[in-house]
Predict the structure.
Amino acid sequence: MTARVLAPTGQNVARCAQALLAGDLVAMPTETVYGLAGHALEPAALARIFATKERPTFDPLILHVALDLARPRLQQLAHLVDIERLSSHAQAQVERLLQAFWPGPLTLVLPRSSAVPDLATSGLPTVAVRMPRHPVALALIRAAGVPLAAPSANRFGRISPTHPDHVLAELGERIAWVLDGGPCEIGVESTVLAVSGRGELTLLRPGGLARTDLESVAGPVVAPGQAQPSEQVRLSEQGLLSESVRDAGMAAPGMLESHYAPRKPLTLLDSSVATLEPHTWQALAIPPSVRHLGLLLQSGDAQAGAARLQDHTGLHVTAISLSPDGDPADIARHLFAGLRALDASEAEWLLAEPCTQTVGLGHAIADRLRRASHGTRQP
Ligand code: TXA
Ligand code: MG
C-alpha cells in the first residue's frame, strides 16, 4: 500500500470519514502537526493506530472533537468526560479554558467517562481531548460524527510531520490516505494540561499555547517537575501519572526523554554558532571520522553560519536557518521540517543551536530540541 495525498474537497473528506467509520486510518492535517486519525470509540481502530506507529500502548492518545461553539462547551464533552468528578470550581475552570482556547492547540486531560475505550487512555482514569482549529480536521471530525483519536502521524519516537510529504516518508507504506492541508501553521504539538477534580492545573507538555496565556485565563499552572513529592503522589492517585510511567522514569505519559529524534546523532549546542570558539568546538568531541556536519540555526543567515563552522572545523557543513530574524513562531513552524531535512542530507552528525527564548513557544521549542538530542553521546 502506498498512501495517496488527497485534496481536501468535500467529496474526499466524506470518503475519508467513511473509511474512518469502517475502522481504517487517515492522516489529517491540524494546525500543530499532522495526526494519524482513527475512530476513537472503536478499540480495533485504536489498536491499528498503535500498530501503525509502533507506539507502546502505555502512551495514551488525544481524542479530537468538534464542538458547537455557540453553546456551553464542557457539557458537549459529557460522552467522553465524567463531568461529575469535577468540582464546580473545576468545571468553571474548564469552561473558561474551552471558551478562551478552543478551537486551538490546547489538549485538556480530564476524568474519563466509561464510553472511552481503555486503549485510548492506556487504562488511566483520565482522557485527553482537543478541538483543533484546522478547517480540514474540523470538517473530517464533523463528517465522521465521532471523536477521532489522533497521535502525530510519525513512527514512534521520530520527528513529527508538519507536511504531507513527511507523513508519506514516515507512514506512506502503511496507510491509504493523507488529507492535504498544506504545511502546518504552528509546527509543534498542542500544549497538554491536566485539570484535577479540584481544578488545579498541571502542564504535562509545553506546546503551541503559552503557559502565560493559560495562566492569564485560569490562574497558576504547575509543571510536574515543580510539583512537591506529595503533589506527585496526588497526581498519580488521580491517574495523571501512571505506574508504568513512573517506572519508566517519565514525568507524564508520552514525556519520554528521547523523542522527536532524527536518525543521525544530534548535539544540542550551549550557545549560538556566532559565539563558538575553537576550544568549545573541541569540547564537543565529535568523532574524527565525521567529515560532514549538519547545522540547525535558530536565526540568521544559513550561509554565514555554515561558513563560520567550516572555518572552525575544516569540515563540510550543511546549514538551515529556522528564521532569518529569530521570530519564535517561524522557528516553531520550521523546526521539525528543518531537522528532517538535515537528517536526509549528506551530513553525518547534526548540531543544533539552543533556543534562547524560554517562555511561550520558546518553551516548546527548547523541549523538542532537548528530546531530539537525547541519547547522543555527550563528552
Ligand atoms: O498537537 C497535537 O496534540 C497532535 C495533533 C495531531 O493533535 N497530537 C499529538 O498526539 O501530539 P501525541 O499522541 O503525539 O501526543 C499526545 C500526548 C502524549 O504526550 C500523551 O502521553 C499525552 O498526550 N496524553 C494523552 N492522554 C493522556 C492522559 N490521559 N494523561 C496524561 N497525558 C496524556
Ligand atoms: Mg507525537
